[in-house]
């Protein structure tokens, strides 16, 4: 078996400056995939389709010439209401429809996978919506960002080491397999903010180490690249620097050389 990697820019569709950079990266960097937010602000109740940048984003992606199939980066409002969301399938479906319509209008392939902004579908900090999410994926032929193994994303995380979480994860992987929903082998990112990232060389070393640890099969590394703007600094005072460093990383020839040196195949989907 070979080692293949989906290299994803997440949180697209909400910041026009970041969207322009992401589109440019697709045309000239190792980036291979984009996760699109199709709801309003991740913390409000404005509902699916409220992000005005989705159509503009997919038009930028189309003009890049990359022919990328956008991913649906599902947002549920926080905090979660008592008892959870009874209409979560409708919410997921509506957000997938927004991305699908925008992609069709721009001449891009239909969305090919679904994932969860801030993990709200997974039930790590509230009710689990894995069953509902897998049902939507099975009905629409979408892959789902649920890793078969937790060995990279779960590094040093006591929550993901808990036996009940491990059991829930194993049940979800089995359910995905039974439904024919494609899953990545592992997923990985940098989970901290500016303080944890420290500086650009440290952040780059973190991602280079992740490349060395990728197992056989198709895995995903996702980042949140963005340029240094007043809007980003105001919206993300504790992690704006890391986002600018991740943008820099995707254009860094050291990253491209290391992917090539390790014989990792860059792909757009798992």
Automatic annotation (TrEMBL):
Pfam families: YdjC (PF04794). Its cofactor is Mg(2+). Keywords: Carbohydrate metabolism, Hydrolase, Magnesium, Metal-binding. One of its GO terms (molecular function) is metal ion binding. GO terms for biological process: carbohydrate metabolic process. Coiled coil: none annotated. SUPFAM superfamilies: Glycoside hydrolase/deacetylase (SSF88713). InterPro entries: Glyco_hydro/deAcase_b/a-brl, YdjC-like. This is Uncharacterized protein. The lineage of its organism: Bacteria, Bacillati, Actinomycetota, Actinomycetes, Micrococcales.
């Amino acid at each position: 078996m070979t080692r293949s990697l989906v290299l994803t820019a997440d949180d697209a569709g909400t910041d026009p400056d970041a969207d322009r950079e992401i589109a440019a990266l697709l045309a000239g960097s190792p980036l291979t995939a984009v996760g699109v937010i199709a709801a309003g602000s991740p913390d409000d109740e404005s509902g699916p389709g409220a992000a005005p940048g989705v159509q503009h984003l997919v038009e930028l992606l189309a003009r890049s010439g990359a022919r990328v199939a956008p991913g649906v980066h599902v947002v549920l409002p926080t905090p979660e209401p008592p008892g959870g969301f009874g209409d979560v399938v409708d919410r997921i479906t509506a957000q997938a429809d927004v991305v699908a319509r925008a992609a069709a209008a721009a001449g891009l392939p239909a969305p090919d996978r679904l994932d969860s902004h801030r993990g709200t579908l997974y039930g790590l900090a509230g009710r689990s919506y894995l069953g509902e999410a897998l049902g939507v994926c099975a009905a629409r032929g979408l892959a789902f960002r649920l890793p078969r193994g937790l060995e990279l994303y779960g590094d040093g995380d006591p929550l993901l080491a808990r036996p009940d979480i491990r059991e829930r994860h194993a049940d979800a992987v089995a359910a995905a397999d039974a439904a024919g929903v494609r899953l990545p082998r592992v997923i990985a990112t940098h989970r901290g903010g500016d303080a944890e990232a420290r500086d650009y060389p440290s952040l780059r070393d973190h991602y280079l180490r992740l490349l060395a640890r990728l197992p056989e099969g198709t895995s995903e590394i996702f980042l949140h690249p963005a340029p240094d703007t007043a809007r980003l600094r105001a919206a993300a005072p504790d992690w704006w620097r890391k986002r600018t460093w991740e943008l820099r990383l995707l254009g860094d020839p050291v990253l491209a050389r290391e992917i090539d040196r390790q014989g990792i195949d860059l792909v757009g989907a798992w």
